[in-house]
Write a structure and sequence with these properties.
The complex is a heterodimer of chains A (about 130) and B (about 350). Chain A is an alpha+beta fold and about 130 residues long. Chain A contains 4 helices and 9 strands, in the order E-E-E-H-E-E-E-E-E-H-H-E-H. In chain A, about 20% of the residues lie in helices and about 35% in strands. In chain A, the strands form 2 sheets. Chain A has a 6-stranded antiparallel sheet with strand order 1-2-3-9-8-5. Chain B has 2 domains: about 270 residues, 2-Layer Sandwich (Gyrase A, domain 2); about 80 residues, Elongation Factor Tu (Ef-tu), domain 3 (Beta Barrel), CATH 2.40.30.110. Classes of the chains: A alpha+beta (about 130), B alpha+beta (about 350).
Chain lengths: ~130, ~350
């Protein structure tokens, strides 16, 4: 069951349709409702390895629907602490709960100031309206 | 910018919220509710596909049969009026110009339903070779075509059972149709050919009977699970039917374009073969990916029935036996797959 469209206020957004939930020096990251809706039902999540370094604005994982594969862009730089195994085992979770059980990775943030470049929910939705 | 062609059902697709995409010059629905639920509907109940973009070519006249016998790989002597046949249009090298279904209306009149991407090519090919007494006409714009597929398709349409590869005139809720017992999903069902202006009414009637609208996305995963080739992927003017496993539709005891070349290939044996495979690791193969050891993936996707990556591809003969382990380069990562006997998916006998 696909989620209905939403962009929670407590998240920071990257214009490539990714989000980060920042908590101290850690952040959980995933893809937005718009991203999962554009892709359709996800059938594969190719995660990074735990311990890998991710770099803001660079691909760190792949998500695939039946028809297409898409890079996932990192909204922040850091080290991967945890991969969401549920998203690996049941990728449709990302469609069902893109901001909840469908998160992708948890990282230790290496450059906290990068968060200043990200959009808030209102600015991200304004960006979507332009597309 | 190129203007996309639209089928007579374009408005219906938009009204149903379909995601429309460009496909070989046509604007077509890739999905409505989603590829996976549509796929499952066809495997368990019934789904309907708008395939009005496909081409319809008529060949008529006292020498129509002679013309087709000289150009198509299969033997029309194996069928008769009211019967249909899967066949190939081959070039002088034995390559596949198109794969199509020929319908024998009567011994002097044949209907060819061809791939949308090849309608112009096939029409031109036949027209150039037309002889006095064989009239070739492209009638594609006059018809709508709906594929209704699934174990409950015939029951939902209220049609009588009939053998595969037969056809007859009929009607669905008052709409006159030609009911072709053919399809591209591996399921029971039919393809309904109607006048273009009747297509919207026919679509509405079929959907009102509880048949699920399905897009090209599910059409592709369904055909891949049962290993039906797609022209442009598995079969092309550069690939031959013997290597593609389509020797069974080549009547090498008759003469047709490329037959001598195909006899030579069969005699000498192909260097490579088209195989089906299932991924043994989590990964989705895609067309164009390298198969280690000299192979290439022609089609790949996710199988909703197996919940695994599946595909077809050409491999050297020594890698083609069922059970052989393959390694596929999935965007720089080596992933294991295993050659399986076709089809990849087979309904469990009930």
């Amino acid at each position: 069951m696909a989620a209905s469209e939403s962009y929670p206020d407590d998240l920071r957004y990257h214009r490539e349709h990714d989000w980060a939930r920042i908590d101290g020096d850690e952040a959980v990251m995933g893809i937005t409702w718009y991203a999962q809706d554009s892709l359709g039902e996800l059938v594969h999540f190719e995660p990074p390895e735990v311990g890998a370094t991710v770099e803001k604005d660079k691909p760190y994982a792949e998500v695939e629907s039946v028809k297409a594969v898409s890079d996932v862009i990192a909204p922040l730089s850091g080290e991967v602490l945890e991969v969401n195994q549920q998203a690996v085992d049941a990728p449709e979770t990302v469609n069902e709960e893109p901001y909840g059980d469908g998160w992708l990775v948890r990282i230790r943030v290496s450059e906290p100031s990068e968060a200043d470049d990200l959009l808030d929910a209102a600015a991200y939705q304004a960006l979507l309206r332009e597309q | 910018m190129q203007t996309l062609l639209r089928t007579p059902l374009h408005d219906r697709h938009v009204a149903l919220g379909a995601r429309m995409v460009p496909f070989v010059g046509w604007e077509m629905p890739v999905q409505y509710a989603g590829v996976i639920p549509e796929h499952r509907a066809v495997r368990t109940d019934a789904g309907v596909f708008d395939v009005s973009h496909m081409g319809e070519i008529e060949v008529e006249g006292p020498r129509a049969r002679e013309l087709l016998q000289s150009l198509l790989s299969n033997d029309l002597d194996r069928i008769g009026p009211g019967r249909a046949q899967y066949t190939l249009l081959t070039n002088e090298h034995g390559g596949i110009v198109d794969d199509l279904i020929v319908y024998e209306l009567d011994p002097h009149r044949y209907f060819l339903i061809v791939n949308a991407s090849n309608t112009q090519t096939v029409f031109a090919w036949l027209k150039e070779r037309e002889v006095r007494g064989s009239e070739v006409s492209d009638r594609s714009s006059e018809y709508g075509l709906l594929a209704v597929q699934g174990p409950r398709a015939i029951e939902r349409l209220g049609l009588p059972e009939a053998p595969a590869f037969t056809f007859d005139e009929g009607e669905v809720d008052g709409v006159p149709v030609m009911v072709n017992r053919t399809g591209y999903t591996g399921e029971a069902g039919c393809e309904l050919l109607c006048a273009a202006e009747d297509a919207p009414g026919l679509w509405d009637a079929v959907v009102a009977r509880g048949v699920v609208p399905c897009g090209l996305g599910a059409r592709d995963t369904l055909r891949l699970e049962v290993c039906y080739p797609l022209h442009g992927n598995e079969i092309t003017p550069e690939t031959d039917p013997i290597s593609a496993g389509l020797g069974w539709v080549c009547a090498l005891d008759k003469e047709f374009t490329g037959a001598s070349e195909l006899r030579r290939i069969k005699e000498e044996g192909s260097a490579r073969k088209l195989v089906a495979f299932v991924m043994e690791e989590r990964a989705i193969p895609r067309g164009g990916m390298e198969i280690r050891g000299g192979g290439v993936v022609t089609s790949g996707s996710h199988s909703p029935m197996l919940d695994a990556g599946i595909g077809m591809g050409y491999v050297p003969v020594e890698l083609s036996a069922p059970g052989t382990e393959l390694t596929i380069d999935v965007r720089g990562r080596d992933r294991r797959a295993r050659v399986v006997t076709k089809p990849i998916y087979r309904r469990e006998e009930s």
